[in-house]
């Protein structure tokens, strides 16, 4: 007859112990479980993704009802045990349910620590321990408002990120000077704080909570320094303490937790304890890995393997907040007999530290790049001598031996439990197995089935390498061409992620999207600068250092290092005053060449750089502004004389050209944009080889686009026909805005149209009035900051250092 | 004349940027990388003489504004498949001041 095993607690430790037991000795026990929560065993460490909305409760179940049934387990759910009668060998629940045992397993877990301050029992104050807490937070988040999280440890930060993801304004209060001070050193704590703040979570360190405010419901939190923070919900996440009450009342030996030996037995040989309620060799654990190690020993002991012993664990911590990579393990306090190896990459926010003692790793902290975490942790646990590896240790596993391996070899060398996707906690083995089991061959399928690279996408390259290893020749990489050597992401992906992740600076893009270089290159920086300017027109500050020289100094560099200056002539119109000013400027500054351009304006060639601001000042005085002849932006709107003079003219093509240019000048675009307006189909303004061209006809205006007459000659395609000038301008602005939002940097409009399709563009810009209007309005907003004459700004002293040498020693020579 | 000549303050050069020092032998470009390291090269790309001071600085390299040659700031050597070398000017930082080697600074055009 099987012996009776009663388990108090239905959490992860108990669940794992039973799984191990059923494997070792399937029929040895008749098992009864008492669980205080009214549900089955679920994965508590995945509560954060449930809170942030990335997972549902169903996704984190460990044992469903069928599992209990299949193993003959009686589960008393929602029944809290109130007494252990060790003489009668019987436990009793609050409702009177009782069960006899031969062996008892205590797995009562831990209780959230509540700081004893006024107001903690108000409705709206929650802890972060179980699914009920998460549901309470989700209910509060639905109403929006403000959340205050007390505690800047692992749980507190995950709660904060989750509530933020649910749309609340979140402030984290932390007693210590830096976040997660038990797992992180101050440098990594600082980076973490910055990352939390970047995603809009306010962090206050050294903040001692004085009281929780409110009459009938929480309304705020008061700090020791008198500051009051309004709050609709307060999450208390300052820590946990082992729940040893029941064991203590039963007369078992307890200290902070239930005391157990290496055999996991308590002071009563028939009573085991496992999990967070346990104190083993003076240590209590709150992470899942040690609980699982304990569970193994409990199961072995229950299956009569008396030699099984638990000797303590070294723990590693990972923060489960999407987009923040953080890993810490072991001990990293400073001591005389310890040595540090530190690597910092400030621009990318990467920080790695390894603490060595007697040539062995005793601790490691990784921030920003955690791929080598499991390798370091492995070396730490095995206490491997690393003196041979020391020179390149900090660079990680792929550098062992001093020579960088090819990336495929590095991926091939990863163990199956190496984590590939940090966001979704997907390891290499899982990806390989899913590919094999389900016969997957595309990245999209792998994303759908494993969630690997489905969140932030930064591990896409790794996932593809795993696919290539698994599938061999059958794998063909998605044909995305990377933007440049600094990233594996293509232009589309980068644009999508800038928008989706709300990235608003070049360092933020490089950090979050895992740029491989410290500060990009001459290809990606101008592209990123444009994308950010386009996406966040009101917030983003243009970065002159990421502009090509022409756009940085608002003139065109020539082969001898001098510049050319082209003032705007609206629609190709000029007048005696402007012409006189141009003539005067040319003489005054000894400008060698004055030429009429193909875009109906005048080019002053051979201007010395230091003369530029003075030349612009004189042109400004005559009412002229920059013609942006140097810009990836609107260049000219070429026109014919139209109805006013021409005997064939059907509309006021000159006037329309001027209107378009006045509305659209100053806008930045992926590549240059040239326009033309012809007053009749004879097309004297050559509108049908422009990026956008208008052909006036008796009944209105034909809008053409996607032409070019440069490296490639391409006639335009007809976009649509409209009746009035206002509608004409609206369509052209909407078209330009769509191109601004979708174009790859340096991709001319005709190439963009080829890539996305003329029909797709027409559907948005012509057929869908709402989308057209929205595009038009976004263009208008962007123009507010764009239509400031860059020449006038520089005449006024902006960027003066660009135009003056730092020092001049040519005269010193003359004096000698 | 001392061996080193003060040409400006470290703050005169923007990060990831460059300033020109006009010298008897032609302009000299003084660069400041993202990590705050300074470099000085003759302001002429080995390719077609483009003013390197006007290029985009990235890492310890500058991309020439005329034809996108990438030049190492440390050695002046063209990177990748291109071949050529921009003349390097010895540079020292003394406190907040930038010093260039007098011999190189005052040298006449070769």
Automatic annotation (TrEMBL), chain A:
Stretches assigned to the BFD-like [2Fe-2S]-binding domain: 420-468, 483-532
GO MF: 2 iron, 2 sulfur cluster binding; 4 iron, 4 sulfur cluster binding; flavin adenine dinucleotide binding; heme binding; metal ion binding; NADP binding; nitrite reductase activity
Binding site for siroheme: 684
The keyword RNA-binding is annotated on this UniProt entry: no
GO biological process, one term: nitrate assimilation
Domain Nitrite/sulphite reductase 4Fe-4S as annotated: residue spans: 631-767
Cofactor(s) listed: [2Fe-2S] cluster; siroheme; FAD; [4Fe-4S] cluster
Entry keywords, A to Z: 2Fe-2S, 4Fe-4S, FAD, Flavoprotein, Heme, Iron, Iron-sulfur, Metal-binding, Nitrate assimilation, Oxidoreductase
Cofactor binding note: Binds 1 siroheme per subunit.
Family: Belongs to the nitrite and sulfite reductase 4Fe-4S domain family.
Name the UniProt record assigns to this protein: Nitrite reductase
UniProtKB/TrEMBL annotation, chain B:
InterPro entries, per the entry: Rieske-like_NirD, Rieske_2Fe-2S, Rieske_2Fe-2S_sf
Residue span, Rieske domain: 4-100
Molecular function, one GO term: nitrite reductase [NAD(P)H] activity
GO biological process terms on file: nitrate assimilation
Superkingdom per UniProt: Bacteria
Keywords, alphabetical: 2Fe-2S, Iron, Iron-sulfur, Metal-binding, Nitrate assimilation, Oxidoreductase
NCBIfam families per UniProt: nirD_assim_sml
Name under which the protein is recorded: Nitrite reductase
Provenance organism: Microvirga vignae
